[in-house]
Amino acid sequence: MADDRAGFPLGRPARLAVFASGRGSNLAALMASFPPTRPGAAPAKDATVVLVVSDRRDAGALALARDAGVGAVHVAFGRDREGFEAAAQRELERHRVDLIALAGFMRVLSPAFAALWRGRLLNVHPSLLPAFPGLHAVRQALAAGVDRSGCTVHFVDAGVDTGPVIEQRGVPVLPGDDETTLQARIQAVEHEIYPAAVRAVLRGDAAPAAPRGGPG
Ligand code: GAR
């Protein structure tokens, strides 16, 4: 189960959970790379998506998960973050999850939850962090007038979009871009780098630095 030492590689296929609030295009990319196993099918190679958690009952991501035969769970967030996290944690344990990928999950998890899953909790963000953290990153990039933006996959720590970077890739901002066109260009790249970053973590090639003062 989750502990402070992520312990990758595991020596067996990893069991992945994806947290998503939206349509789930990153979930689809992750499921294409780490296919859910169906009864009678060949076992997973390096990893398999076993659980999708959403704070939104109507999230497209939940429908995608159900269609793929993956555990799909709506957990209300409301004003009660601790309640969400406790219920999510029960599902994570029930599904024996090794690593969580946040994919368009539009809630901020607590420092305690990030610490519990340290090294096993990843996020994808639509900017070249540390530029444009938080909400509406694509809108922020357009408002700032930059000629390059992109996306970042990083470990989640106690801050918002502040954790150690695993993969980052830039895209040009083109004349005439609006939020829709730039977001589409960024998301096409997210769909490539997110599975690659998950693989790097599973191989043990990427890990957050040891906490300061910790045993290493
Ligand atoms: C993605 O572009 C992701 O980077 C962004 O939400 C989108 C979800 O799309 N996440 C954030 O902005 C988190 N701060 P999807 O539901 O199609 O994967």
Characterization of the model:
This protein is α/β, with parallel strands linked by helices. It has a domain at 13-107: Formyl transferase, N-terminal domain (Rossmann fold, 3-Layer(aba) Sandwich). The protein is 32% helix and 20% strand. The chain contains six helices and seven strands. The protein has helices at 25-33, 60-67, 81-94, 111-116, 137-144, 179-203; strands spanning 14-19, 47-54, 71-74, 99-102, 121-125, 148-155, 165-172. The protein has a seven-stranded mixed sheet, sandwiched between helices. Helix 1 (25-33) runs parallel beside helix 6 (179-203). The longest helix has 25 residues, at 179-203. The mean pLDDT is 94. The structure holds glycinamide ribonucleotide (GAR). Residues 20, 22-26, 103-104, 124-126, 137, 187, 190 line the site of glycinamide ribonucleotide.
What is the fold's blueprint, element by element?
Elements: E1 14-19, H1 25-33, E2 47-54, H2 60-67, E3 71-74, H3 81-94, E4 99-102, H4 111-116, E5 121-125, H5 137-144, E6 148-155, E7 165-172, H6 179-203
Parallel strand pairs: 1-2, 1-4, 2-3, 4-5
Antiparallel strand pairs: 5-6, 6-7
Helix pairs in contact: 1-6
Bound molecules: glycinamide ribonucleotide (GAR).
